[in-house]
């Protein structure tokens, strides 16, 4: 099947969504303004409404994109690891020093979890979709996948991953940041 080249408007829309996906992870929902996003995308503020009916519609799409980017990265990590080591590889990538330091390109769940509940239903729906996707990815890596309790263990694993990453980013002590991630990895792998 032949792919067609995206139209100029589609390509511009993609640039805006990419800029917004980075911005929400970097600055949060309230710190993400239309003017700054348009500037980051190399566009003028006036063209925004040709692409989105509202700022909230853009935030919902940016949330989906940020989540898709994160899911794709974690899926590549899992695919590149031997089957018995996939969960360990996923945990190590998610709780890596690089991921702690690169919030703008990292997991939007850890970057935005405390803010999502204040957002519009569309943004919350986008976040919920991506959180469920993350839980499912983690659950499929469990040696107990398909057995009773495996889904609940995946819920705990994701909650621990997100919490550890959020705390590691919050503290100003690099040693404590590393210790939080290391302890979470050790704990979660010992339970697998």
The largest sheet, given as strand count, sense and whether it forms a barrel, is:
none
Rg measurement, Å: 18 Å
CATH architecture term: Orthogonal Bundle
Regarding quaternary structure, what we see is single chain
* Low-confidence blocks of residues: none
How many independent structural domains? 1
Structural class: mainly alpha
Question: What would you note in describing this structure?
Answer:
With 192 residues, the chain is mainly α. It has one domain: Tetracycline Repressor, domain 2, CATH 1.10.357. The protein is 70% helix and 0% strand. It has helices at 8-27, 34-40, 55-79, 86-94, 97-101, 108-116, 121-141, 150-170, 174-191. Helix 1 (8-27) crosses helix 3, helix 3 packs across helix 4 (86-94) and helix 3 packs parallel to helix 7 (121-141). The radius of gyration is 18 Å and the shape is globular. The protein starts with 7 loop residues before the first helix and ends with a helix. The mean pLDDT is 92.
Which labels suit this protein?
0% strand, 192 residues, 9 helices, mainly alpha, Tetracycline Repressor, domain 2, single chain
Tell me briefly what this model is.
This protein is mainly alpha-helical and 192 residues long. It is built from nine helices and no strands.
Any chance you could write out the topology, listing elements then pairs?
Blueprint: H1 8-27, H2 34-40, H3 55-79, H4 86-94, H5 97-101, H6 108-116, H7 121-141, H8 150-170, H9 174-191
